[in-house]
Amino acid sequence: MAETTAKDKTGLAKYCLPLQTAQDLDPLMERIGDARYVLLGEATHGTHEYYTWRAEITRRLIQEKGFSFIAVEGDWPDCFDINQWVKGYQDTPENIEEVLRQFNRWPTWMWANWEIAALAHWLRKYNDNLAPEQKIGFYGLDVYSMWDSMKIIVEYLEKEDPQAAAYARRAIDCFEPYGEEESYATALGSMKPSCREAVLQLLLEVRQKASQYNHAPEAGLNAEINALVAANGEEYYRAMSAFGGNSWNVRDRHMVEALNTLMNYHGPEAKVIVWEHNTHIGDARATDMVDDGEINVGQLVREQHKPEEVVLVGFGSYEGTVIAGRGWDSPMREMPVPPAMDKSVEKILHEASPENKLLIFDQQPALKEYFRAWMGHRAIGVVYHPERDRGNYVPTKLSARYDAFLYLDKTKALHPLHQEAKGHQMPETFPFGM
After folding, report:
1. Residue 45 pLDDT more than 70?
2. Stretch 110-122: mean pLDDT, rounded?
3. Mean of pLDDT values over 1-27
4. Is 109 within 8 Å of 418 (Cβ atoms)?
5. Among candidate residues 381, 383, 420, the one with its CA nearest the CA of residue 113
6. Which end of the chain has the lower number of beta carbons within 10 A, N or C?
7. Please, which pLDDT band fits residue 423 given cuts at 50, 70 and 90?
8. What pLDDT is recorded for position 211?
9. How large a percentage of the chain has pLDDT more than 90?
10. Is the sign of the CA dihedral 52, 54, 56, 58 positive or negative?
């Protein structure tokens, strides 16, 4: 990691922009310009300020630059329920809290939280004034919901398309003995043929007929993405079970394939806002991920499009609290985030001045050059042990990994929906009047 001096660090502050109010995002809006892909990161999956600042950026992109939809690091079936609610589709629950409480796959707090509820309320109100084809969508890109997606598509096709349902039944019959994804992954070691042929035939059939399914709002899109999740989910769990298999790459390639499907669906003028962890949206080529042959969403999107079409925005903080678990499927809890370690991005920016900052690298050559050096950059996942925080730093060339960076000096945990708010009402989660 780069050696720095106190003089170097304190001098950085004059090149950073203030970040206190919604208006302080104006330089970022200028940097985004006419980009069609804006990817917004987070350094944890449980920090209030990451959600609220992303929500404010999102709101401005929708209102000022005509962005078409939001795509997140979440399961397609659950997020499609949010999409239906914010667009005011028939037969949706009366309130968003009821929708979000159906998120029951751990970690529930990632999307079932009051911050997302507030954003969804704003989207619903905004969409009420738009024609159906102009309404802003909310979709999940992840691959984890393979089993749920299989069930949804089989039930749907059995009612709507008996010919395609034959492929669906073949696929579901293949999966049936294994019950859930983890059982399938475990069984793969002793299986002869996998279920991949069945789900790929299903995906091909659904893609060929997707346009015929649109008698209900977005029915064709829903069928196609669920079939894609089934196909790529099978590959993901197979990679997990294989010695040396790279399930990370399968997952991120799936998210980009799902993203491309959504962009094609929304047309040539579509613009998307992506919400994912920094480890997905920050270009992997500027981290040590490249040493392990790993790619990610940010890298793939950059490679597939012109530089001016893509803006990657990272997030980080010096200290605070976070919602996480101490093990997979363990209870969520509020945990301390200790002060960042020496020579890390977060410690350097804190020592420059203990204030929130916006860094836009190509507008400040001095910042871009300084952050070309390798530095530790904290990444906290859904499983976290504060006492082992030193193991949560990714060697990073910050100004190559992102186009812009929001530094938030002190942050606090988000507000999970499954932990009741005082008075059973939405807490004050948005500082910008959403």
Report:
1. yes
2. 96
3. 77
4. yes
5. 420
6. N
7. very low
8. 63
9. 66
10. negative
Residue closest to 101 by CA, chosen among 113, 90, 91, 89: 113
Q: Is the pTM of this model over 0.85?
A: yes
Q: Give Cβ neighbours of residue 131 (< 8 Å, ≥ 6 apart).
A: none
Residue 184 has pLDDT above 80, yes or no: no
Report the pLDDT value the prediction gives residue 27, as an integer from 0 to 100: 98
d(CA 363, CA 162): 57
Q: What is the secondary structure of 95-138 as a DSSP string?
A: SHHHHHTT--SSSGGGTSBHHHHHHHHHHHHHHTTS-GGGPPEE
Cβ atoms within 10 A of the Cβ of 372, count? 15
- Whether the per-residue pLDDT at 183 is higher than 90: the answer is no
Kindly list the distances between the CA atom of residue 201 and the CA atoms of 169, 230, 270, 297, 340, in Å, as whole numbers in the listed order.
11, 11, 29, 26, 49
Distance CA 265, CA 378 (A): 36
Q: For residue 345, which amino acid is it? A: V
Q: Which residue ranges form the domains of the chain, and what is each CATH number? A: 6-141+271-424 (3.40.1660.10), 146-242 (1.20.1440)
pLDDT in tens, 129-182: 999 999 999 999 998 776 677 667 666 677 667 777 776 666 666 655 555 555
Q: How far apart are CA 333 and CA 330, in angstroms?
A: 9
Over residues 94-100, the mean pLDDT reads 94
Beta-carbon contacts of residue 391 (< 8 Å; ≥ 6 apart): none
Write out the two tokens for 280. Answer: 């997905």
Cβ-in-10-Å burial (0-12, 13-18, 19+) of 7 comes to: exposed
52: which residues sit within 8 A by CB, 6+ positions away?
115, 429, 430, 431, 432
Rounded Cα distance between 142 and 233, Å, is 9
CA-to-CA dists, residue 328 to 64, 72, 211, 324, angstroms: 40, 21, 39, 10
The confidence score (pLDDT) of residue 186 equals 53
Cβ 323 vs Cβ 413: under 8 Å: yes
Using left for φ > 0, alpha for ψ between -120 and 50, and beta otherwise, residue 76 falls in alpha
Question: What is the CA 118 to chain-centroid distance, rounded?
Answer: 18
Q: What value does the CA radius of gyration of the chain take, rounded to a whole number of Å?
A: 22
Q: Which residue has the tokens 């040493």?
A: 291
Q: Is the pLDDT of residue 228 over 60?
A: yes
Confidence of residue 432 (pLDDT cuts 50, 70, 90): low
Length of the chain: 434
Phi, psi values for residue 73, rounded to 5°:
-80, 70
